[in-house]
Amino acid sequence: MDQKINRNLPVLLTLLAFTWTYLPSFSQANYLEESWKKQSEPLEIRILNFEFQESSNQLLHSFSPWQQTNFSTSGEIWSKAHDFSKIDTLLSNQRIYLSKTVLSQQDLLQQNYGKEQLEPLTKSQFHDQVFLSARYLPHRTLSYFKEHHPPIERLEEKYAVYSLQINKTTVKLFIDKETFLLSKIQTLSHDELFGDVETAYTYSAYLQIEDFYLAQHIEIKKINGKLLDQVDISQAKFTDSRPQLLKRPADYQLAEEDPISASVSTSSFNEHIHLVELGHTDDRALVVEFSDFLLVAEAPLTSENGELIIAEAKKIAPDKPIKYFVFGHYHPHYLGGVRPFVQEGARILVSEHNQEYLSYIVHAKRTVQPDRLSLHTRPLQMELIQDSLRISDGEYSMEIYLIGEKSKHTIDYLVYYFPKEKLLFEDDLVWIPFNGESKNVSARQTGLYQAIQDLGIEVQTIIQSWPVSDYGVKTIIPFEELEYSIKHIKQ
Ligand SMILES: [Zn+2]
């Protein structure tokens, strides 16, 4: 008996090894392989050509939080295997702008709307095209997955799900188990402002052209579903030739991603007012020193910048806690670094216009790129500003005014007034050139002047947060110069 088992053991082991090695990968490879055959393989040898209509929405530096700007474009695409060429036009203010993209296995060339020159692009931007091009056509994403053959991550009732890390993004494919067609691509990546952001590309209205399957309707949900883009494809056919949309210059190169080297310098305007300049973002934050606490205003773009400003505040007054953090308006150059201040236990000053937005940013998940607040959470403390708020230690004081839409820039706009110094600190409303006279005065500049008049405050000096040295404008401005510009320069 024992001998018989021993004799059969090698056979059994071989069989077992075969089963382990081949069976699971056999069943796992199926969905991906089949999907690739339907949606990618036919393009290995043929050029697909189609037209598209696109509606995309973006959060620009707009008037109020979550306000979307819509762009409608239409164009034409030619694609074969790794190659992808796109030409499209954007209609804006009655003018037509042209854009071109040429993507190959080694290169990415892009000419943006209304530009003559090629965009300077990085290797990272090129690598991300593996999934970004799935906005129109997912064949490159499928090919990439087939080459890297990840195991099935999970089987859902309807879908087989595969997952891969591409560059800094986690990409998941959802393949329909019955049709073997790609139903959805989901990506998870880091956004400086919003933390973990999920983008979902959903494919529908499949059309069969010979042995190739093309989704004619693509919906793209961005920023965890906050924004929805749509692409509609028509006139799809195979073709023998494609135009050369862009010529690759001989010296063209995709750049390496440069790590940002931070530069920070702090100067004191007087014993209460300290200015922290971040050279790498061209911003100026404000640290106000009271007898037993600090207030910090503005923290640009990232949690890392917030940390840099906190470190400077601690150098200025090591024993004084940061009791308040305030941002002049919700744009990223003033709010992007708020999270470490929440972790410090600072009270965040908000208005009804931005408290939900602030709360979203503070409560956003940060698993892709954790920061101090995501590692050591602390409850958000907010204090609501109605029209104004006075911060004082009994002797020294500052006043915060909500000028809102008078700024002609954002609905939540705040300015800070220091009565003792007759000084006003604001973010980005005044644009007076260092050299020569302004040609005209912006609505923002007029808006600030009017707001100061309406508040009835006496201002001698204005200090501006951004820009500090780019753009060649003054950022410490005598009030007479603002007044002169309003009274003597065309608006
Ligand atoms: Zn702004």
Description:
The longest helix is centred in the N-terminal third of the chain and has 38 residues. The strands form three sheets. A twelve-stranded antiparallel sheet has the order 5-4-3-2-1-12-11-10-9-8-7-6. The protein has a seven-stranded mixed sheet with strand order 13-14-15-16-17-18-19. The N terminus is likely disordered. The chain contains ten helices and 25 strands. By secondary structure, it is an alpha+beta fold. The chain has two domains: 211 residues, Lipoprotein localisation LolA/LolB/LppX (outer membrane lipoprotein receptor (LolB), chain A, Clam), CATH 2.50.20.10; 225 residues, Ribonuclease Z/Hydroxyacylglutathione hydrolase-like (Metallo-beta-lactamase, Chain A). The N and C termini lie far apart (103 Å). The protein is elongated and about 80 Å long. The site of zinc ion (ZN) has 6 residues, from loops.
Bound molecules: zinc ion
Q: Major beta sheet, specifics?
A: 12 strands, antiparallel
Helix-and-strand structural type:
alpha+beta
Count helical runs: 10
The strand order across the widest sheet is: 5-4-3-2-1-12-11-10-9-8-7-6
Q: Write down the overall geometry.
A: elongated
Fourth CATH level, the homologous superfamily of the largest domain: Ribonuclease Z/Hydroxyacylglutathione hydrolase-like
Residue share in β-strands: 35-45%
